[in-house]
């Protein structure tokens, strides 16, 4: 068993700021402190309007008054990224209620199904999505639909729930199975929020740009909540197509990105210049999928921007580990954050602690925990001699070959991704016409200008280099087919690659 200590991160942070990183038991406690400490600081900028911490609390308090007295403590939030989402989330959670985050891409029938499944007693809906609440209104008129821009006439004070009280229900990614609702306590949300402060020098008073969906735990916890905790300003990018325009206008100091977006930003910045990233950007926090070491090195060497890889789960309020030694150990997802206990059983990472979910709402949990109450992550890992964590694969993605050998696709993909010509890779099991099974590899090449191939046809070059790597692998791990794609992989809303299931 490993019990991490926050002190391992002290040396990476400004000493005065490290002393300001304190644990809190609820969103209400955090938000009260932020409003008192940073009342006149702009907290949110959205569509040309700026809102200070004090202004937001005055607005949130009036929305709280419309929710006061809710008998059932679960309130759905059905909003795209916007100021309305922020005020709705704060109103629900600082009233001691549980926010059930419904992704804005859900259709009317799915919204109705979620209301029924999760026992939602009221739904806060963005005006742009009201057409998707018709089924709910006709079948369950007892569930009020409140517009996200609604304002009560009187202010309503905050409620301070217990640390173990439920705070938010978030959908898991569902990349290899159906989505489930992970119920996170106030303590878990705040632990994830505070974990976002560890491992880099300048923490408080930063400028964040929001491009990740707030319906995803990475966007909600690391992008929004850590920004509000640290008295920072968050600029909301409503459309990812406007990302670089918004960067130029807002000049963020920190970006929170998934690898696919970080790759796109790198390619465009190399092509059109550093100004694509703004002249103030210091840090990129990167996670939610495997981070190629190439990104770590390129951002540092070309633009002097520090890209930090990390690891987390919806079930762990996002943040489990972060890598402050990104240049020395770029393949690692870093050091474990505090207030959790971890162990490795048969290669699988198991976790319990303050950051972990209360459970899946409305789902059977057989097999989710071990006999000691540790959550089974399903991730295959290893630790090095310095305590740094490495993800080597997913338990449910392990391929069992006809020979009986177990192969982790992710572990092989990491080997192929050491080739700088490759942006993404996927290893999977395929089958020939005669029924024989084999391993196949598909890759997405980097843009020619990024890969520095000029006018040369990249496919033969990439294939040859991949074969060199392939020949260094044990015979049972070698791929028998290599495909260089001319399009990206299909991806989930959180930009993870959708895994093939060919067999």
Short descriptors:
single chain; 503 residues; alpha/beta; Rossmann fold; GMP Synthetase, Chain A, domain 3; 2 domains; 9-stranded mixed β-sheet; 7-stranded mixed β-sheet; 23% strand; globular
Describe the 3D structure.
With 503 residues, this protein is α/β, with parallel strands linked by helices. The protein folds into two domains: 6-391, Rossmann fold (3-Layer(aba) Sandwich), CATH 3.40.50.12780; 398-484, ANL, C-terminal domain (GMP Synthetase, Chain A, domain 3, 2-Layer Sandwich), CATH 3.30.300.30. The protein is built from 14 helices and 25 strands. Helix 8 (217-229) links the parallel strand 9 and strand 10. The protein is globular.
Helix-strand blueprint:
Elements: H1 15-19, H2 27-37, E1 42-46, E2 49-52, H3 53-67, E3 74-78, H4 83-93, E4 98-101, H5 108-118, E5 122-125, H6 134-139, E6 145-147, E7 166-171, E8 181-185, H7 186-195, E9 207-210, H8 217-229, E10 233-236, H9 243-250, E11 254-257, H10 259-272, E12 283-286, H11 293-303, E13 306-311, E14 321-322, E15 335-336, E16 340-345, E17 348-353, E18 359-360, E19 375-383, E20 389-394, E21 399-400, E22 406-407, H12 409-416, E23 422-431, E24 437-445, H13 448-451, H14 458-470, E25 481-484
Parallel strand pairs: 1-10, 3-4, 3-5, 4-7, 5-6, 9-10, 9-11, 11-12, 12-13, 24-25
Antiparallel strand pairs: 1-2, 7-8, 8-18, 13-14, 14-15, 16-17, 17-19, 19-20, 21-22, 23-24
